């Protein structure tokens, strides 16, 4: 794979499919940095005993989940928060995608 001539869309498709890809394109470098910052924020708050809602918000940042949460204290909040995984820190992901 020629690093100077990488089709970014095809490269990302290959990455998501678990195929060989080039990890040092500008978009993937930016994605790793974004995910690293999000993981660090999660790890810092989890160790500080943050409320469940805050941890879910930080998790959503890691995995790029833009689904809005119900307002705090609403009847729907508890069910919405329960639908997200419990994750113990420290965590580390490359991109924050395909986290199951």
TrEMBL record:
Which terms in the Gene Ontology molecular function aspect does this entry carry? acetyltransferase activity
Q: Which Gene3D superfamilies match?
A: Hexapeptide repeat proteins
Q: Does the keyword Lyase apply?
A: no
Q: Does the keyword Ligase apply?
A: no
Q: Which UniProt keywords apply?
A: Transferase
Instruction: Enumerate the Pfam families for this protein.
Output: Mac (PF12464)
Give the domain of life: Eukaryota
UniProt xrefs under SMART domains? Mac
Give start and end of each Maltose/galactoside acetyltransferase domain. Answer: 12-68
Query: Which family does the record assign?
Result: Belongs to the transferase hexapeptide repeat family.
This protein is called Maltose/galactoside acetyltransferase domain-containing protein
